[in-house]
Design goal:
Structural class: mainly alpha
InterPro entries: Adaptor_Cbl_N_dom_sf, MLKL-like_MCAfunc, nSTAND1, P-loop_NTPase, TPR-like_helical_dom_sf
Helix content: 55-70%
CATH class of the domain at 499-663: Mainly Alpha
Largest sheet: 5 strands, parallel
Strand content: under 5%
Number of strands: 10
Organism: Suillus plorans
Protein name: Novel STAND NTPase 1 domain-containing protein
Number of helices: 46
Pfam family, one: nSTAND1
CATH architecture of the domain at 499-663: Alpha Horseshoe
Length: about 900
Amino acid sequence: MNQLLNVTIAGINAVQTIVPSDLAKGILGTVANILMVVQSVIKNKSDFRAIVNKCKTIGEILERVTKDTTNDNLPRYLVHALLMLNSSVNNINNKVVSRKEQGLLKRFFSATIDRDQIASWEKDIGSALELFNTESIAGIAMKVERLTLGLDGNTTSANVLKYHSIEPPSRPSMFYGRDDLVAELTTLVANGEHIALIGPGGMGKSSLAKAILHEPLIIKKFADRRFFAAYDDLDPSTITFETFMTHFAGALGIEITGADPLRPISTFLHSTSALVVLDNAETFEEASTSSALEKIPPAIAKIADIRGVVLILTSRSRRNATDVLWRTMDIPPLDLSSAERVFFQTYPRARCSDAEEEIKDLLRELDFHPLSINLLTHTARHNDWSLATLLKRWNDRHSAVLNPGKGKLQSLPDTMQLSLDSPSIQGLGEDGRRTLAMIAFLPQGLNDNLAGDLLPSLQEVDTICDVLRRQSLVYHQDNFIKVLAPIRHYVQDSLPLPDSTRLREIRTFYYRTVQQCSKEQDGHANVIISDHFNIERVIAFDLTHIPEETYRACSKFLLCLRWHLPRPTTLTPTILDVVENSSTYELKADCLWNLGYLYSTLSQLTDAMKISKAAEALYLATGNHEMVAQCVTSCADRYRCQGRFIQSQQLLEGFQRSESWEYLDSQFTAPADELFVKSSDSKDHFYGLQSKIRHWQAKLYYGGDIVQVNEHLENLLLQCTCTRVCFARREALMGLSEVAFCEGRLSKAMDILQQIMEMSEGERSDNVLWYTVLKAIVASKQGDHVLVRELIYQAPESSQFFELRSAFVSLHRSYGAAWIELTAGAYDKAESHFIAAIEGCDIQGHLSFKAYSKRGLGEIAFVCGDFALAARYFTETRPLCTEMGVPERYLYSCDLFSVLPDRFCGWTLFLEGQSPFANIM
């Protein structure tokens, strides 16, 4: 056996010296190493006879197949076969060497390997040889077929002139954020599915297709049979079937003539598996000539039916060949992270900027559109713009900045114009462009369900939108027909404004809906909720062009938002900037009044007061003194909500000395105490009840007889019988719950709060959450900590808009959570919630909860024995009390549910200067 090994090793070494291929030399060296390990270490050498013979065969085969070749002109099919053989041989060598090392580590001079293991290695080598032979035979067959067709050498025929190898385009160097999509598409292609990549111009469809061509799984399956046929340099109006086929053949590396160009292409593709990309397919899908429309789709279908052929099609159009089973994939924009990588990679100067949020906002304005990001950053880099200059240029010029060169890859206008010039769009006439302009004008796009109501004169609106979508100029999302931001900017910059007829129709529908809208959650309210940004856009446009006709719609729309969808509005600067005249003072004031209440609903009280003061000035100019009084009292109430009682009082006292005071009736001017007493005689029973209820609440807060307060509030509650006094009923119940809480009747307090919540259901979710927090505080006093946490941390399902609607309620919940964790002894959690409440107070300008939270932090420090820290927090609480106008000892006088239990006595000891604060102070 040793002699056989010696001879075989020597023979393989001899072949290794003469074969021209470095790859073949490496394989032979590995095979020789396997045999030398067997010779030097393995004890049962005779069991390796079959492996030795197969290794000898490998040497003979490699000598034969590499004859008459050089290292530079090795056929591709042979390179592929050798690579696979090399991988297999290396794997076997690693296993043999591993067993050798195991034997040495055990301090044996030789090792015995069981026959099953040897048989397994023999099988592996046999499989490697079989795979090598299969690859080689396939390659030789393909070469023979090419020779038969005249694809090699200078052979020609009637239909085939010559063949030359075509390399697919390189993988894009800047290609981010598509990893999951590439992996999904690669799997589909490897499984033989035809893919249609659909999307607007500049979305990265071609880059995606090029990336797929270079995926390892694709290279392994298709080897050098990966082709890329580009049609972006052709004109849809002139392309013919013959032009299409010539381009297709050129991408394969063949040139054809004759009457049937499909035959040689089919013959070429039949030889083995192939992947073909048809890039910018909209060029031939939108062809104008009859021959192209009739012949190209069937030709594509026949090619797609060839066994082993897979097609990838990239297109802006959805008019893909109908007889092909396409897996259609709409290409999305980049995500934020990937868009940022593209931005910084192309424009590295921006990395040094601290304007992170401004960059994110810019990318959002571009809808994360890859081409727009690329063009914008290249323009900035080539012009050496700073980031500030780039942002200014974008704000000033929008799509004009995205035009640094010519051609669809260098200019957004050029790539957009290609779509607009397509025969399908041209066939729509002016209605197509007008509809696109209107969709671009509306920030949400066109509500598909309301399209007929919004544009009644446009009978074919659905058909037009279908065509626009097929061309990827618009897309469908959440029942709206939308455009991407770059397309919107281009359309707004290059096409005329929406024509007056279409704009009038949309205005009529939206304004009628606004005027008919009420507090009820009906169909009109649903339109407000669904189309609110569009309505806002139309109103903003009209305010700058026809303000006199728009004020009433604007004022009512703001009221509708407050009822159904409280949110910040972009109308604020537009309303403020309108130059009013004497005839529009009151109309503008009404807009400002409702705008102020909207901001108040959002707990943006500082902004609400500024807006109310602007409304007050206009009402004063028109002599509407009652509305002046309403503006003043609303501002005073907002100061009170912030805990700024001194400012509230000063504002009211100042108003008493104003000119408007003299014009008001006794309903407004009566002293507070007298007002509370006489209000029962008021013609408006609602105001009488509410005033009395607040009077007795005030008695409770300032230490009045609690039994007497309870009796009067119960009597007043009985008078709240009609729907119109719902708010007064809620106020009375709230007062009774406070009485029950102070008296320790916790079950009663809980029942009353539940009554209030049931009244609030179906109205505003923030009201429900407010009273839920109070219920949690009561439950905490009852010791039911499981219920407490369930109440405080689980917001109602209906409060999805809660954070937007009322930040003050969020502040209330933060403090409530801190109160609960403090009383439960979870001081770390309590501290975290108190800090969050203080941060919220700083943002919103609230003093009361800030003072409560500072005191709470002091109590935590006091309980933990850190008296110096406790003194610091208590010291910070004192000036807040002064600023509010609240005596330090009565910090919670108007907020009875916020009072901490008596066992937290640090604040009291601090105020009295008792130990341990005597020395610290």
